[in-house]
Amino acid sequence: MTPRTDARTKPGGAAASRSPSAVAVAPLGLWPAVAAAAVLIVALGVLYGLTLFPGVSKGDSAELQYMCPLLGICHPPGYAFEVVVGWMFSSIPLGPGVAWRINFMQAVCGIAGCLALFGIVRRLTGRTWPGLIAAGLLGLSVTYWAKSVVADVYVFCGMFLALGIYALLRFTEQRRSRWFYLAALLLGITISQRPAELFVLPALGALWFLRRRDLRLGWKRLAAGVGLAALPFAASVGFYLLREDPALLHARDDAFRDAILSKGPAFTELPPMRRLREAVLYCMGFKAAGREDFTAFSWAQVGWDLNKYAWRLSGLGALHDRYDPEETAASEAVALRQRQQGRGTSIGLLGLVLAGLACWRRRREGIVLGAGLFAGNLLYYLYMHPVDNLDFVIPGLMGLSILAGLGTDALGAIRRRWLARTLQGACLAAPLFLAVTNYRYVDPRNQADQMHLQLCNLVRVTPLPKNPVIIGTYTRAQTLRYVYWIEAGRTNVRVLIYRERFEPTAAYEQINALRKKGYSVLISSEGIRSEQKRRMLAGWSPRELVDIGIYWAYPRRHGPVRIRR
């Protein structure tokens, strides 16, 4: 980064004497930035508050909501830092319950990430208005907004990524080691939480390359930075070694399931070096390999991924849903695409136009940073093919938002000042468009979410038989664990997650083995493949269980159980 000076410095002035890569920017003012940050906090706070999910969610979100108060270990890579922060938030006597507090934590992180992006663009341009536009585009994009109002991992990691980039920019300006060390630590936390963000590190390397003559890193400083960057991963591994214990509630039922499947010894029974190896692999995310929703790389899938990403960026989703969510799919392939497409708009067409204007002023550092973040994240997005990979694009949206901020600043170069001010003011239409059109997609007061919350309330008070063991799919089982363990305090209820290794042909024997041990075996209704068998189970089960979507498992005479994967 260059020292701050007036962009209109005369040809013979200081700006002309700098290196070709340097572009002069206006001096920074404190109070305009404070006022803009306050506006950003209030605007996002109101919108996020109105759309904050009020209770427990499903799947990964529900997992985080019960793992945080239990200081547990989530799915790979474990998300140790988010769990610890969530544990602190869950201890605050605020709101209607623990789930709401974890959702509230995400809203705080979402606003903090937008503030960090505001600071990044303000540092790159020397002006407040472009930073405000960029932060608004990010915070009101449907991908970012939806992940800021419910428990999840993407916005939390995005906040640390944005803060790390901001600290790195401060280091390039002031050349003070403390900013370099802070950037290394923050980026280390980012990567320890989501190793996939390694794909965006080349963008930061390119930023350093542009300033390599002025930013010489000595061996001592570099070694200290590497050590600080590695420290969060080491802490995550230590957290895993400490908390992966079947005696603890959060790990009890997964260990119980693995035991009845004869998977092998418990983690605490492994030799020390084997435990360390397992912990390292888990925290690197390698344990997620083999999931059935991850498909092998294919160019045909890349084409579809580009297609659905382009739809979300274009803004067409604001006009209508590409696939009607109320329409019954004619085929399983169409149903899959309905789930993959996603709804709403991120960045939008006007935001993309602003991003395209970034090249006008030739701010190479900002362009390299923004384009590098987008390109690196796009590479990872195209490499991974799960159904929910549109959730992975927050670093890319940060890059596009940075470019849009640079494009907003570029409009200020128009010679007619009134026209420049008018066009820069019109840029506010881009985030306002996102706010108006995306609100309905993130508003939790829809019928599906309300029915889910009502069902959770019913589950909490419905009596269960003695020694209950509930077998369910991943999405439902995580919700049941939160409701029974955290809200109802019924820790005697065991909830087993049915995964691909729990083969349907083996389910019959496992259920009968559980019965012989004195457990009352129940099955969550969404795991039953056949509608006919579901009706049969409903007739066999008590009415109060059927009302909450839980059935008695088949008795021996009814043959093997088929559970949906």
Please describe the structure with a list of short key phrases separated by commas or semicolons.
565 residues; mainly alpha; 3 domains; four-stranded mixed beta sheet; 24 helices; 61% helix
Helix-strand category: mainly alpha
Average pLDDT figure: 85
Unreliable stretches (pLDDT < 50, length at least 5) are 1-26, 500-505, 556-565
From the alpha carbons, calculate the radius of gyration and give it in angstroms.
Answer: 26 Å
Strand order of the largest sheet: 2-1-3-4
Distance between the termini: 52 Å
Number of helices: 24
- Biggest pleated sheet: 4 strands, mixed
Helix content: 55-70%
Shape: globular
Number of domains: 3
Approximate strand percentage: under 5%
Order of helices and strands: HHHHHHHHHHHHHHHHHHHHEHEHEHHE
Could you tell me the number of beta strands?
4
For this entry, what is the oligomeric state of its chains? single chain
